[in-house]
Each structure stands twice: as C-alpha cells, then as structure tokens.
Amino acid sequence: MKIVSVVGARPNFIKLAPVHKSLSQYCDHVIVHTGQHYDYEMSDIFFKELQIPKPDINLGVGSTSPGEQIGEMMKRLEKEFGYGRREGVERAGVASKPDLVLVYGDTNSTLAGALAASVNNLPIAHIEAGLRSFDRRMPEERNRILTDHLSDLLFAPTGTAARNLKDERAVGRIINSGDISVEVVKEALKFSKDSTIMKELSLESKSFILFTMHRAESTGSYSNLKTILETFQQLEKQRSDRSPSSNRMQPKSSSDGNSRSTGKYSDQGRQLQIVFPIHPRTERMLKSYGLYEELVGCENVKITTPLGYIDFLRLLIESYKVVTDSGGLQKEAYLCSIPCITIRKSTEWVETLEQGWNKLCDFKTKEMIDLILQPSPSIGKNYSKHIFGKGDASEIIRDSIISGYHKSQS
Ligand code: UD1
Ligand code: UDP
C-alpha cells in the first residue's frame, strides 16, 4: 500500500512525526512537502528534532497570495500524483498513484492536498478532522470545512469534533482517534529536559509569559499590534513599580484605569517578563506598520526567532501563563497544565475552556492585563487530559487505514 502525506507548514510537520513512525513499518509512506514554510526554523528543524526523514519531494511553492499558493500546490501535486497528462508528463515518481492521500490540520497545504487528491479520485484521510471555531473569517476554518467534506476517512481528535462532523453530515467515515499531539508532546517533553533555552534566555522558572501571535486576522491590523505593545508596556510599568529600587510603590488612584492599584494580583504576576518567539509574518507586519522598534524597546520582552519544538515545549512548561492566538498551543498548554489566554473571539479547542484553563480575550489592554495577572486555576477533579485521547492516535489511525485498505482489496 502506498500512502502519500502532504505537509507544508509547522503544525503539519509536528502532527506528521508520530504518524510516519507508525505507518512506515506497514506501508510505503511518501512525504511530500509543499514548501509553504521554508525557513530552517519553520521547517527543517522539526524534521531534524522529531526524527522525520527528509521529505521525498519538496514542491517549493513558497509564500504568495492564498489563491495562487493553493493553486500552485494543486498543480504540482497533481503532477506528482501522476496525473499531469496535459503537459504529456505521465509521471511514475515516488508519489504517483497513491492508494491514499493523508492531510493534517487546517493549513493551505492541507486543503491543496485534499483538493489535488479529490479531483483525481484519490481517497483522502484527514487527521484533526471536525474542529470548528465557527468563525469563517479564519482561513483555517474554511480549510477545515472544505477538507472534511472531501475526505473519506475523518480522524476526529475529540468527541466534540466527531459530533461536529455528524451534525454537518460529512460523508466520510468518522473515527474518534484522539488527538495526535498527545503523543508528540509526551515524546518531545523527554528531550526538552536537556534543552538549554532557559539558560540561553536567562530565565527563571515561572517568571515569564510565553507569547505567540501569527494569525492573519490578528496581525493584519495596526490597532491589534498596537494594543499588544501597549499591554507589554503596561506590564513593564507594573514590574518597575514593584522593583525594590523603585520609589513608585505606593498605590495609585484607579482613575487611570491601571489595574495595578486594585490589589487583586499576585507579586509573582507583577514581576513577569514576556518571551516572544516571533513568527515571520508577525515580524513583517510589525515592520510594515513601523512598530517593530517599539517592540524591541520593551525592556520586559525577550524576542527570539521561531523556536524548535523541544526548546519551545521547555519554555511552555516553565512559563507562568501562555498568551497566544495559536490553535495547537492552546491544547498543548492544557496538556501541560499551563493556563492559557487566547486572543481570539472563538476557539476550535472548546474543551480547553472548561474550568478556566483557557480564556478567550479581545484585543483590549485592560482585559489582557487582568487575565494575565489573575491567579491561575487549580487542577480540579474535572480536569482531564483524556478528553484528547489516550495517546494512541497514531496506532488508531494506522489500524483504520490498513484494515480499510485490506477490506477494499478483498
Ligand atoms: C500558516 C497557516 C496557519 C498556521 C501557521 C503556522 C494557512 C492558511 N495558515 O500561517 O494555520 O497556524 O502557518 O505557523 O495555511 N514566512 C517566512 N518564512 C517561512 C514561512 C512564512 O518568512 O518559512 C512569511 C512570509 O512572509 C509569508 C508569511 O510568513 O507570507 C505567512 O506565511 P503563510 O504560510 O502564508 O501563513 P502563516 O501565517 O505561516
Ligand atoms: N511552535 C514551535 N516554535 C515556536 C512557536 C510554535 O515549535 O516558536 C509550535 C507550537 O507548539 C505548536 C506548533 O508550533 O504546536 C504550531 O503552532 P502555530 O501556532 O504555528 O500553528 P497553529 O497551531 O496555530 O496552526
């Protein structure tokens, strides 16, 4: 049996790792990288750290407008699948005529993989199927919906995701596999013990917030980026007001809206630094709005390049709280029992909202500061990591695929 996995962006690579390990023992597993992400820190590092072999094919599509990007990916994938007949190039390469095309998550590479397979009548399996934020402004939400409704096998990471697919009457077979990240996180945490990132950044455990932001709808607005900077600046003010050398420790009138004076925050919260591994999109947008220098000027912010998964997970488990607009990070924070503040109107990982482990937040400085400095929730009896499965998703995925194939052959 030949299976082609189509991947292209950071979150796709992370999900690919356990699936490749599990599938490659049982079938011919070909990896096609679309080239959506191409910087070392956004791509190669994940293959290296997570021990995924180098992709069999890299389509080298790169960054452009979404329509052109998806179109180019489809065109090149179609050729690799062996259907580029119009140009007289009936190819018999490593990815030609697969028995199944496997796609992951919700990126443009996911959708392009599903579309290129679908128009050529190739069976499709979708890992991380059925997630819904119900916010169609997000390209990821559109990619998920379209991919799900083209897929034959739908691997749902949670009960909610499986229910969403049933409610939408998706035609593919729905399998509640649990979430693939449970395995990746568990495995990578073993390696993260040896990470030197805390030392490199001179950080103390629980003394910082891990901050990431990269979504098109967040970074495309001057006002959103400015609000983030103001939040950082206000947090720095809190910090310097608490510093022993400061002569500004007296309570201040609350009339300026500064939450510093309310007395409801812990000292630990007030000392926080911010660690910001910056996504290339965010850096580009900050520079284009003339805000990057202002960010560099924030004394409480440590900016880094995007980090490899092992260093990143080490920062996650050592952080006081996470503030993010990422999808995957919300769930990883939950799995590591780190409180998360999600700067979005809705989330596809609704389970993380229960018991206050994840809180949705608008782009409003006061709201963000309140949530950051509030005491963290404690682990109650309803806190269960099993909502994301038992950590055997890659086995369930492999067994369902292989048994389905044998049935179709008999
Ligand atoms: C994509 C996914 C998003 C995912 C994110 C993970 C879509 C629609 N979005 O968003 O779901 O959360 O990846 O990081 O697929 N760039 C570089 N170097 C790179 C890659 C990108 O400089 O290696 C820059 C380019 O300027 C590019 C921009 O980042 O235009 C955005 O990249 P793109 O892949 O289009 O979207 P992401 O924001 O990364
Ligand atoms: N991540 C990483 N290094 C970073 C930032 C994020 O390894 O500097 C990881 C993060 O843990 C997550 C994955 O990259 O599992 C994808 O996150 P991202 O926010 O890029 O995408 P999303 O999950 O929102 O699609």
User: Using DSSP, what is the number of strands?
Assistant: 13
Radius of gyration: 22 Å
Largest sheet: 7 strands, parallel
Small molecules in complex: uridine-diphosphate-N-acetylglucosamine, uridine-5'-diphosphate
CATH names the topology of the largest domain as Rossmann fold
Low-confidence blocks of residues: 246-262
Terminus-to-terminus distance: 14 Å
The arrangement of helices and strands along the chain is EHEHEHEHEHEHEHHEHHHEHHEHEHEEHH
The total of helices stands at 17
Number of domains: 2
Q: For the largest beta sheet, what order do the strands appear in spatially?
A: 3-2-1-4-5-6-7
The CATH class name of the largest domain reads: Alpha Beta
Which percent range describes the beta-strand content?
A: 5-15%
Helix percent band:
40-55%
Task: Report what the structure shows.
The protein is α/β, with parallel strands linked by helices and 410 residues long. The chain contains 17 helices and 13 strands. Strand 6 (153-156), helix 6 and strand 7 (173-176) form a beta-alpha-beta unit. Helix 1 (10-23) crosses helix 17, helix 4 packs parallel to helix 5 and helix 10 crosses helix 16. Uridine-diphosphate-N-acetylglucosamine binds at residues 9-11, 36-39, 42, 63, 106-108, 139-140, 214, 279-281, 284.
